[in-house]
Amino acid sequence: MKVVVTKNYEESCKFVAKEIIDLVNSIPDAKIGLATGGTAQNVYPHLIKAYEDKKVDFKNVSTINLDEYIGIDPENPLSYRYCMDNWFFNHVNIDKANTYVPCGLNDIESEIKTFNEKLYGDKLLDFQLLGIGVNGHIGFNEPHDSLTAGVHIENLDESTIKANSRFFDSPDDVPRKSITMGVGDIMKAAKIVLIATGDNKVEVMKALLMNDYVTTKIPATILKLHRDVTIVIDEDLAKKAGYVK
Ligand code: PGA
Q1: Relative to the CA of 132, which ligand 1 atom is closest?
Q2: Dihedral-angle region of residue 42 (phi above 0 means left; psi in -120 to 50 means alpha; beta otherwise)
Q3: Which residues contact ligand 1 via a Cβ below 6 A?
Q4: Which residue is catalytic, options 42, 46, 126, 137?
Q5: How many A from CA of 16 to the centre of ligand 1?
Q6: Do the domain assignments include residue 245?
Q7: Fewer CB atoms inside 10 Å of the end CB: C or N, the chain?
Q8: Domain range holding 136?
Q9: Which strand (E) or helix (H) includes residue 159?
Q10: Neighbours of 200 (CB within 10 A)
Q11: Is residue 67 among the annotated active site residues?
Protein backbone atom coordinates (compact mmCIF):
# COMPACT_ATOMS: atom_id res chain seq x y z
CA MET A 1 0.00 0.00 0.00
CA LYS A 2 1.18 3.47 -0.80
CA VAL A 3 0.50 6.02 1.95
CA VAL A 4 0.23 9.73 1.21
CA VAL A 5 0.35 12.08 4.20
CA THR A 6 -0.96 15.55 3.45
CA LYS A 7 -0.85 18.78 5.48
CA ASN A 8 -4.56 18.70 6.25
CA TYR A 9 -7.90 17.19 5.23
CA GLU A 10 -8.50 19.82 2.54
CA GLU A 11 -5.19 18.88 0.92
CA SER A 12 -6.21 15.22 1.11
CA CYS A 13 -9.40 16.02 -0.79
CA LYS A 14 -7.43 17.94 -3.42
CA PHE A 15 -4.99 15.04 -3.78
CA VAL A 16 -7.78 12.50 -4.26
CA ALA A 17 -9.58 14.76 -6.76
CA LYS A 18 -6.33 15.09 -8.74
CA GLU A 19 -6.04 11.29 -8.88
CA ILE A 20 -9.54 11.11 -10.41
CA ILE A 21 -8.89 14.01 -12.80
CA ASP A 22 -5.62 12.44 -14.00
CA LEU A 23 -7.41 9.12 -14.47
CA VAL A 24 -10.20 10.65 -16.57
CA ASN A 25 -7.68 12.59 -18.62
CA SER A 26 -5.84 9.39 -19.45
CA ILE A 27 -8.97 7.17 -19.75
CA PRO A 28 -11.82 9.44 -20.98
CA ASP A 29 -14.37 6.62 -20.64
CA ALA A 30 -13.12 5.58 -17.20
CA LYS A 31 -15.42 3.46 -15.06
CA ILE A 32 -15.18 4.83 -11.55
CA GLY A 33 -16.45 3.49 -8.24
CA LEU A 34 -17.59 6.33 -6.00
CA ALA A 35 -18.26 6.71 -2.30
CA THR A 36 -20.51 8.85 -0.13
CA GLY A 37 -19.82 9.50 3.57
CA GLY A 38 -18.70 12.72 5.16
CA THR A 39 -15.03 12.25 4.30
CA ALA A 40 -15.44 11.61 0.57
CA GLN A 41 -18.01 14.40 0.26
CA ASN A 42 -15.44 17.18 0.09
CA VAL A 43 -13.58 15.58 -2.81
CA TYR A 44 -16.48 16.37 -5.15
CA PRO A 45 -16.27 20.21 -5.09
CA HIS A 46 -12.70 19.88 -6.42
CA LEU A 47 -13.92 17.73 -9.30
CA ILE A 48 -16.65 20.26 -10.07
CA LYS A 49 -14.13 23.13 -10.01
CA ALA A 50 -11.79 21.23 -12.37
CA TYR A 51 -14.74 20.65 -14.71
CA GLU A 52 -15.70 24.35 -14.62
CA ASP A 53 -12.07 25.27 -15.33
CA LYS A 54 -12.16 22.88 -18.32
CA LYS A 55 -9.44 20.70 -16.85
CA VAL A 56 -11.53 17.54 -17.07
CA ASP A 57 -14.43 16.24 -19.10
CA PHE A 58 -16.87 13.71 -17.61
CA LYS A 59 -18.88 13.22 -20.81
CA ASN A 60 -17.86 9.59 -21.34
CA VAL A 61 -17.26 8.59 -17.73
CA SER A 62 -19.44 6.01 -16.00
CA THR A 63 -19.77 5.59 -12.24
CA ILE A 64 -21.00 3.01 -9.77
CA ASN A 65 -21.55 3.80 -6.11
CA LEU A 66 -20.48 1.46 -3.36
CA ASP A 67 -23.74 1.17 -1.49
CA GLU A 68 -27.16 2.46 -0.46
CA TYR A 69 -29.50 2.13 2.50
CA ILE A 70 -32.33 -0.36 2.08
CA GLY A 71 -35.81 1.13 2.28
CA ILE A 72 -34.78 4.68 1.48
CA ASP A 73 -36.34 6.59 -1.40
CA PRO A 74 -33.82 7.97 -3.94
CA GLU A 75 -35.65 11.30 -3.57
CA ASN A 76 -34.88 11.37 0.16
CA PRO A 77 -32.04 13.86 0.83
CA LEU A 78 -30.36 11.22 3.01
CA SER A 79 -30.26 8.65 0.20
CA TYR A 80 -26.90 8.18 -1.47
CA ARG A 81 -28.51 8.74 -4.90
CA TYR A 82 -29.71 12.16 -3.77
CA CYS A 83 -26.29 12.94 -2.26
CA MET A 84 -24.41 11.97 -5.42
CA ASP A 85 -26.75 13.97 -7.67
CA ASN A 86 -26.43 17.06 -5.51
CA TRP A 87 -22.78 16.77 -4.52
CA PHE A 88 -21.49 15.94 -7.99
CA PHE A 89 -23.52 14.67 -10.95
CA ASN A 90 -25.83 17.71 -11.29
CA HIS A 91 -22.81 20.01 -11.57
CA VAL A 92 -20.78 18.32 -14.31
CA ASN A 93 -21.40 16.98 -17.82
CA ILE A 94 -21.64 13.32 -16.85
CA ASP A 95 -24.51 11.44 -18.51
CA LYS A 96 -26.80 10.51 -15.59
CA ALA A 97 -27.73 7.34 -17.47
CA ASN A 98 -24.12 6.28 -16.93
CA THR A 99 -24.28 6.74 -13.16
CA TYR A 100 -25.48 3.91 -10.97
CA VAL A 101 -26.33 4.16 -7.30
CA PRO A 102 -28.13 1.04 -6.08
CA CYS A 103 -31.78 1.68 -5.30
CA GLY A 104 -32.85 0.84 -1.77
CA LEU A 105 -36.54 0.63 -2.68
CA ASN A 106 -36.41 -1.96 -5.46
CA ASP A 107 -36.95 -5.67 -5.02
CA ILE A 108 -33.70 -6.83 -3.42
CA GLU A 109 -32.96 -9.80 -5.70
CA SER A 110 -33.51 -7.78 -8.86
CA GLU A 111 -31.40 -4.90 -7.50
CA ILE A 112 -28.52 -7.29 -6.73
CA LYS A 113 -28.79 -8.54 -10.33
CA THR A 114 -28.74 -4.99 -11.72
CA PHE A 115 -25.78 -4.09 -9.48
CA ASN A 116 -23.82 -7.07 -10.85
CA GLU A 117 -24.72 -6.21 -14.43
CA LYS A 118 -23.44 -2.68 -13.87
CA LEU A 119 -20.23 -3.97 -12.28
CA TYR A 120 -19.47 -6.73 -14.76
CA GLY A 121 -21.56 -6.08 -17.89
CA ASP A 122 -18.71 -4.29 -19.64
CA LYS A 123 -15.26 -3.57 -18.27
CA LEU A 124 -14.13 -3.73 -14.63
CA LEU A 125 -13.73 -0.62 -12.49
CA ASP A 126 -10.69 1.46 -13.38
CA PHE A 127 -10.78 3.14 -10.00
CA GLN A 128 -12.54 2.85 -6.64
CA LEU A 129 -12.80 5.68 -4.12
CA LEU A 130 -13.24 4.58 -0.51
CA GLY A 131 -13.85 6.09 2.89
CA ILE A 132 -13.45 3.93 5.98
CA GLY A 133 -15.85 3.29 8.85
CA VAL A 134 -14.88 3.70 12.51
CA ASN A 135 -14.97 -0.11 12.65
CA GLY A 136 -12.87 -0.48 9.50
CA HIS A 137 -15.75 -1.16 7.12
CA ILE A 138 -15.36 -0.40 3.41
CA GLY A 139 -18.59 0.14 1.54
CA PHE A 140 -20.99 -1.33 4.09
CA ASN A 141 -18.87 -4.48 4.57
CA GLU A 142 -19.06 -4.68 8.35
CA PRO A 143 -16.72 -6.76 10.57
CA HIS A 144 -17.71 -10.45 10.75
CA ASP A 145 -16.07 -13.88 11.09
CA SER A 146 -16.08 -13.97 7.30
CA LEU A 147 -16.61 -11.37 4.62
CA THR A 148 -18.80 -11.58 1.52
CA ALA A 149 -17.08 -11.25 -1.86
CA GLY A 150 -20.02 -10.14 -3.99
CA VAL A 151 -22.91 -7.68 -3.87
CA HIS A 152 -25.12 -8.41 -0.86
CA ILE A 153 -27.39 -7.08 1.82
CA GLU A 154 -25.62 -6.11 5.02
CA ASN A 155 -26.99 -5.39 8.49
CA LEU A 156 -25.44 -2.19 9.78
CA ASP A 157 -23.11 -2.56 12.74
CA GLU A 158 -24.08 -0.71 15.95
CA SER A 159 -20.98 1.50 15.54
CA THR A 160 -22.02 2.41 11.99
CA ILE A 161 -25.57 3.27 13.10
CA LYS A 162 -24.10 5.50 15.82
CA ALA A 163 -21.60 7.16 13.45
CA ASN A 164 -24.20 7.75 10.70
CA SER A 165 -26.86 8.98 13.12
CA ARG A 166 -25.27 12.43 12.82
CA PHE A 167 -26.99 12.74 9.44
CA PHE A 168 -30.43 11.70 10.78
CA ASP A 169 -32.78 13.22 13.37
CA SER A 170 -32.14 10.32 15.73
CA PRO A 171 -30.29 6.96 15.75
CA ASP A 172 -33.71 5.27 15.45
CA ASP A 173 -34.11 6.81 12.00
CA VAL A 174 -30.90 5.28 10.59
CA PRO A 175 -31.83 2.42 8.24
CA ARG A 176 -30.66 -0.95 9.60
CA LYS A 177 -29.84 -2.59 6.28
CA SER A 178 -27.87 -1.67 3.20
CA ILE A 179 -27.04 -3.05 -0.23
CA THR A 180 -23.31 -2.96 -0.84
CA MET A 181 -20.53 -4.08 -3.15
CA GLY A 182 -18.74 -6.98 -1.51
CA VAL A 183 -15.04 -6.90 -0.72
CA GLY A 184 -14.33 -8.97 -3.85
CA ASP A 185 -16.07 -6.39 -6.03
CA ILE A 186 -13.99 -3.63 -4.46
CA MET A 187 -10.76 -5.61 -4.83
CA LYS A 188 -11.34 -6.05 -8.57
CA ALA A 189 -10.90 -2.31 -9.20
CA ALA A 190 -7.62 -1.60 -10.99
CA LYS A 191 -6.74 1.18 -8.57
CA ILE A 192 -8.13 1.98 -5.10
CA VAL A 193 -7.78 5.25 -3.19
CA LEU A 194 -8.95 5.44 0.43
CA ILE A 195 -9.34 8.78 2.19
CA ALA A 196 -9.57 9.11 5.97
CA THR A 197 -9.52 11.89 8.52
CA GLY A 198 -10.52 12.52 12.14
CA ASP A 199 -9.82 11.23 15.63
CA ASN A 200 -12.46 8.51 15.36
CA LYS A 201 -10.38 6.86 12.61
CA VAL A 202 -7.14 6.60 14.66
CA GLU A 203 -7.66 2.99 15.78
CA VAL A 204 -8.55 1.65 12.33
CA MET A 205 -5.65 3.51 10.74
CA LYS A 206 -3.32 1.89 13.26
CA ALA A 207 -4.68 -1.50 12.17
CA LEU A 208 -4.26 -0.58 8.52
CA LEU A 209 -0.83 1.05 8.65
CA MET A 210 1.04 -0.14 11.72
CA ASN A 211 1.07 -3.91 11.23
CA ASP A 212 0.86 -6.49 8.49
CA TYR A 213 -2.29 -8.32 9.59
CA VAL A 214 -5.32 -9.00 7.44
CA THR A 215 -8.46 -9.65 9.48
CA THR A 216 -12.15 -9.85 8.65
CA LYS A 217 -12.75 -8.05 11.98
CA ILE A 218 -11.33 -4.92 10.31
CA PRO A 219 -12.52 -5.31 6.71
CA ALA A 220 -10.27 -2.55 5.27
CA THR A 221 -7.20 -4.67 6.10
CA ILE A 222 -8.03 -6.78 3.03
CA LEU A 223 -6.73 -3.84 1.00
CA LYS A 224 -3.23 -4.97 2.01
CA LEU A 225 -3.69 -7.76 -0.56
CA HIS A 226 -4.33 -5.37 -3.47
CA ARG A 227 -1.52 -4.28 -5.73
CA ASP A 228 -2.50 -0.63 -6.28
CA VAL A 229 -3.94 0.98 -3.15
CA THR A 230 -3.23 4.52 -1.98
CA ILE A 231 -4.20 5.58 1.54
CA VAL A 232 -4.56 9.35 1.84
CA ILE A 233 -4.47 10.80 5.37
CA ASP A 234 -3.60 14.13 6.90
CA GLU A 235 -0.63 14.73 9.17
CA ASP A 236 -2.80 14.95 12.28
CA LEU A 237 -4.30 11.48 11.75
CA ALA A 238 -0.93 10.06 10.62
CA LYS A 239 0.68 11.28 13.86
CA LYS A 240 -2.11 10.03 16.12
CA ALA A 241 -1.97 6.63 14.45
CA GLY A 242 1.80 6.55 15.03
CA TYR A 243 2.56 6.47 11.30
CA VAL A 244 4.67 9.65 11.44
CA LYS A 245 6.51 11.11 14.44
P1 PGA B 1 -17.42 8.95 6.99
O2 PGA B 1 -17.86 7.51 6.53
O3 PGA B 1 -16.50 9.48 5.94
O4 PGA B 1 -18.70 9.71 7.08
O5 PGA B 1 -16.72 8.79 8.30
C6 PGA B 1 -16.97 6.65 5.90
C7 PGA B 1 -17.56 5.28 5.80
O8 PGA B 1 -18.42 4.93 6.65
O9 PGA B 1 -17.14 4.53 4.90
Answers
A1: 9
A2: alpha
A3: 37-39, 131-133
A4: 137
A5: 15
A6: no
A7: C
A8: 2-240
A9: helix 158-164
A10: 12
A11: yes
Q: Give domain status of residue 130, yes or no.
A: yes
Q: How many domains does the chain have?
A: 1
Cα angle 79, 14, 220 (rounded to 5 degrees) comes to 60
162-221 pLDDT, tens digit each: 999 999 999 999 999 999 999 999 999 999 999 999 999 999 999 999 999 999 999 999
Q: Is residue 55 part of a domain?
A: yes
Report d(CA 126, CA 24) in Å as an integer: 10
SS3 of 14, please? helix
In a domain, 85, yes or no: yes
pTM, whole model, 2 decimals?
Answer: 0.97
How many of the other CB atoms lie within 10 Å of CB of 107?
10
Q: Catalytic: which of 126, 142, 154, 185?
A: 142
CATH number at residue 153: 3.40.50.1360
What pLDDT does 3 receive?
Answer: 98
Q: Kindly give the number of the ligand 1 atom that is closest to the alpha carbon of 139.
A: 9
